[in-house]
Design a protein that fits this description.
The complex is a heterodimer of chains A (about 260) and B (about 280). Chain A has about 260 residues and is mainly α. Chain A has eleven helices and no strands. In chain B, helix 6 (about 75-110) packs across helix 13 (about 230-235) and helix 10 (about 145-170) runs antiparallel to helix 12. The chains are: A mainly alpha (about 260), B mainly alpha (about 280).
Chain lengths: ~260, ~280
């Protein structure tokens, strides 16, 4: 951005500061010797013991599956509802109070209800629960993306007698896609959070489950390893989505113009 | 900081859908549609529970739940819990704002500081705060401190990122003009950089407000700090299904309330700002 000044100093700072933080934490944790705050080296070792690859299949894979399935289903539903709502003012007016209510609802408040309604603490409940809350960011962004569409585009297509489903597929969805995609990115990070909360509430497998068990058995090592893993999952999924988005939206001029560098 | 913009929905930038309460349509029609919308949802609920598609132990009827809610709002213990949750939200959000805005200004203004802390921020930001619950439970216990810490930790990141972005997005022509007129650095910060960053900070706070409420509630549900979450946990443990539903509805109402509070304050307070004028077109 503002590339003036001593570039080397900045690069050095960018590398040195994170390392310094970890080193200070390591030294402090070793001298304090508290069981609650293990040094990073110990957490990394615990992380290796636990996830690479002891419990990878039993706990990490189920969690990832739930995140991705819930995210996928929620996004699809969000777009499917968002398109008609974006195109019809009255449908939107009618549905908006409901949408505003459910998306303001703190997700954990519905956890016990989801268990009751679905008679499940397994994948069915986890995936539906994640999917439900993934709907809203995508839904709202779909609506906004469609409302922000150039009306000339749609009217021209209509004047040429292009049928409605073709208009949606070829004009409305592509034009709204950058915004839909931004909503999907929010949903993806939401899916990780909700996975943790749902598994921590009731489950028999998953990263959140490991978190719960390690709390109940007072094992701080696995707990820190689980926290680190959840951070890594959140970070990696976000990064992966950003790269995928960049490829998918490479054609989009507005997106390019809006992105620095 | 390309990522900062993409985190935000259009709704976050522009405020809520203007068709809901915009001036374009008569307010009365809007209100009627609003009432119809809720009436329809409640009627649907009643129909499902009466038809017996879902067992009554799993889904109490709408009328029974509303009756339960009506009973609840007349008890002092409900309001105590309601205010306790609101307190966790308010203190958490307040602390996060007090910390994140100054830090965001420093990291946004100084290229060196921004670069130095880029990696830690980018790594800590996506960590779901809920993962810290067991750690807080074991260290601080089911206290107000752990609830506030959790809420503040979660709320800190959106405000920080938005503040940094707002400070960096200031119009360079305005800054350069002020500089060439010899306006001192502190004056430039107060009169140009900060005012133009305020809408970004407001957006960050609105996102953070939802996060803080969720985390305050989650702390209560999972750790047993007093509040609505704890009541909900009790209702679930004792199989008081109707009360469980009533409490969930009340929690949703608190969510809507805090959201409305923020959008209203934001719209009023930022009336002077061009971003609000552009939106009105």
């Amino acid at each position: 951005m503002r590339g003036r000044g001593h570039e080397t100093v900045k690069v050095a700072a960018e590398i040195a500061v994170p390392i310094a933080i970890v080193v200070v934490w390591e030294l402090w944790a070793r001298s304090a010797d508290s069981q609650f705050w293990p040094p990073p080296s110990k957490i990394v070792q615990e992380f290796n013991d636990l996830w690479v690859f002891e419990q990878f299949r039993s706990d990490v894979v189920p969690s990832l599956m739930r995140i991705l399935l819930g995210f996928g289903i929620g996004s699809a539903v969000g777009v499917a509802i968002g398109v008609p709502l974006g195109m019809s003012l009255w449908a939107r007016k009618f549905a908006m109070p409901q949408i505003e209510y459910w998306r303001a609802m703190p997700p954990p408040a519905l956890l016990p209800i989801s268990v009751l309604l679905l008679h499940s603490i397994g994948n069915l409940q986890k995936v539906s629960f994640i999917a439900f809350f993934c709907i809203f960011p995508v839904l709202l962004n779909t609506i906004d993306g469609i409302r922000g569409l150039d009306p000339t585009l749609v009217d021209t297509a209509r004047a040429y007698g292009i049928p409605a489903h073709e208009r949606i597929r070829r004009i409305v969805l592509p034009a709204a896609f950058p915004q839909i995609s931004a909503g999907m990115r929010i949903s993806l990070s939401l899916a990780v959070i909700i996975m943790v909360v749902a598994e921590y509430f009731s489950s028999t497998s998953g990263v959140g489950y490991v978190l719960l068990i390690s709390k109940n058995t007072f094992q701080l090592g696995p707990m820190w390893a689980a926290i680190l893993l959840i951070g890594v999952i959140g970070y990696v999924l976000n990064l992966a989505y950003m790269l995928a988005e960049r490829r998918m939206l490479a054609w989009h001029r507005g997106w390019r113009a809006a992105t620095p560098q | 900081m390309a990522s900062a913009t993409q985190e935000i929905t259009a709704e976050d930038l522009h405020g809520p859908d203007p068709t809901v309460s915009a001036t374009g349509t008569p307010r009365l029609t809007g209100f009627v549609v609003f009432v119809l919308s809720f009436a329809f949802a409640l009627a649907f609920w009643q129909a499902v529970s009466v038809s017996g598609v879902v067992r009554e132990q799993d889904l109490p009827s709408m009328t029974a739940t509303m009756g339960e809610l009506w009973g609840l709002v007349q008890t002092g213990s409900f309001w105590t819990a309601f205010l306790q949750t609101a307190r966790g939200w308010a203190i958490g959000l307040g602390l996060a704002t007090l910390l994140a805005v100054p830090i965001g200004i420093v990291l946004g203004l100084s290229d060196l500081a921004g670069r130095a802390f880029r990696v830690p921020v980018e790594f800590l930001r996506p960590i779901p705060s809920a993962a810290l619950i067991p750690l807080l439970f074991l260290t601080l216990g089911p206290t107000l401190q752990s609830e506030v810490f959790l809420a503040a930790f979660g709320a800190f990141w959106p405000i920080l990122v938005q503040t940094m972005y707002g400070v960096r997005d200031v119009d360079p022509v305005a800054v350069d003009t002020a500089r060439s007129f010899g306006v001192p650095k502190r004056e430039r910060l107060w009169r140009i950089t900060l005012p133009s960053a305020v809408p970004y900070i407001a957006t960050g706070m609105r996102i953070a407000s939802a996060v803080a409420l969720i985390l305050a509630f989650t702390a209560e549900l999972f750790m047993g700090t007093p509040g609505l979450g704890k009541l909900l946990n009790y209702a679930q443990s004792y199989g008081l299904t109707t009360q469980l539903y009533a409490l969930a509805l009340a929690t949703g109402a608190l969510g809507v309330g805090t959201h409305l509070l923020f959008t209203t304050v934001e719209r009023r307070a930022l009336r002077w700002h061009p971003s609000q004028r552009v939106e009105a077109v």
